Amino acid sequence: MTARVARVTGGSRGIGRALRRSVLREIRSLHSRLDRRAVLRLTELLRDGDPAVREAAAVEMRFRRQGLAKEALQSALQDRSPLVRRAAAESLGVNCRGSRRAPSMLIRLLVDPHPLVRLEAAESLGYIGDRRALPKIWAAARDGHPLVRSYAAAAIGGLGRRPDRNRLERALKTERSDTARLGFYDALYRLGDKDRLFDVIALLRSQDYRVRCAAARTVSSFVNRTNRGLILSALRLALTAEHSIPAREALREGVRNIGSAATTSGLSGLRKSR
Questions:
Q1: Per-residue pLDDT reduced to its tens digit, 114-128
Q2: Host domain of residue 263
Q3: Residues 6+ apart with CB under 8 A from 132
Q4: What gap in Å lies between CA 138 and CA 141, rounded to an integer?
Q5: Using CA of residue 132, residue 136, residue 140, residue 141, what is the dihedral sign?
Q6: Confidence of residue 274 (pLDDT cuts 50, 70, 90)
Q7: Which of 27, 33, 35 is nearest to 54 (CA)?
Q8: Which whole number is the average pLDDT over 178-183?
Q9: Is the pLDDT assigned to residue 166 strictly greater than 60?
Q10: Which string of DSSP letters, residue by residue, matches the chain?
Q11: 169 part of a folded domain
């Protein structure tokens, strides 16, 4: 009897996995479709019983700016799976970028139980540009998780003004985590403190390879006509001493991207000096 139950259970699991693969293939097939029918199907899949399917549907909702898509994603912000909430927050940040009107539920995710959801909410709020969210983002900049503090600080860099720069500088004096400090350096640079470029370059030598990866990507985003040579030299120097495979790839990617922008557009594709 036990063997028979095991065989039936195993068969059911096999059917479940096959069905999941089929639905995930369907979601991928909708990637290039932005029509209403595709949005309706993704909305339906956001209510699927399988969290992996709901997460994939939330991811695929990116770049779909119809009101129906935004409503579906806002509902998904309350999903019981943190991975679905995170994906919905990320897609809303993409879809509402620059709108300056953040959904209230997205702001509430800054206090979600899961740090990945909190940091994604902070990043998306920074993309959306709603300054009304600043007090809540400032609270997230004091989060107990350093990665959340980092993302919150970076979001403040996009939303803040001179008084926020002063607050960031004060908060940085007591911040001990390289992970969090990177977000503060990013924010201060974007708020006009260009000397923070050297602080980010220094983090290319952090003991944590994940910080080195993030620092490589951050410093590459600072490139303009004035600092291009300095940043390229810093990335290449760090590459000669780097042994971590992920960090080496991040450094190589930065070098490639900077070189490609200069080659294809004569530096016109690089960020203008602020």
A1: 999 999 999 999 999
A2: 204-274
A3: 102
A4: 5
A5: positive
A6: very low
A7: 27
A8: 98
A9: yes
A10: -HHHHHHHHHHHHHHHHHHHHHHHHHHHHTTT--SHHHHHHHHHHTT-S-HHHHHHHHHHTTT--SHHHHHHHHHHTT-SSHHHHHHHHHHHHHHTTT-----HHHHHGGG-SSHHHHHHHHHHHHHHT-GGGHHHHHHHTT-SSHHHHHHHHHHHHHH--HHHHHHHHHHHTT---HHHHHHHHHHHHHTT-TTHHHHHHHGGG-SSHHHHHHHHHHHHHT-BTTTHHHHHHHHHHHHHH---HHHHHHHHHHHHHHHHHHHHHTTTTSBPP-
A11: no
Any residues with CB less than 8 A from the CB of 47 and at least 6 apart, and which? 54
**pLDDT at residue 270 tops 80:** no
Confidence class of residue 259 from pLDDT cuts 50, 70 and 90? confident
Domain presence at residue 148: no
In a domain, 87, yes or no: no
Whether residue 92 lies inside any domain: the answer is: no
pLDDT band at 15 (very low <50, low <70, confident <90, very high): low
Contacts by 224-227 with C-beta closer than 8 Å and gap 24+?
224/270, 224/271, 224/272, 224/273, 224/274, 225/267, 225/270, 225/272, 225/273, 226/273, 227/197, 227/273
First to last CA, the chain: 74
d(CA 197, CA 200): 5
Q: CB 40: neighbour CB atoms within 10 A?
A: 14
- How many folded domains does the chain comprise? 1
**How far apart, in whole angstroms, are the C-alpha atoms of residue 36 and residue 28?**
16
Question: Is residue 129 exposed (0-12), middle (13-18) or buried (19+ Cβ within 10 Å)?
Answer: middle
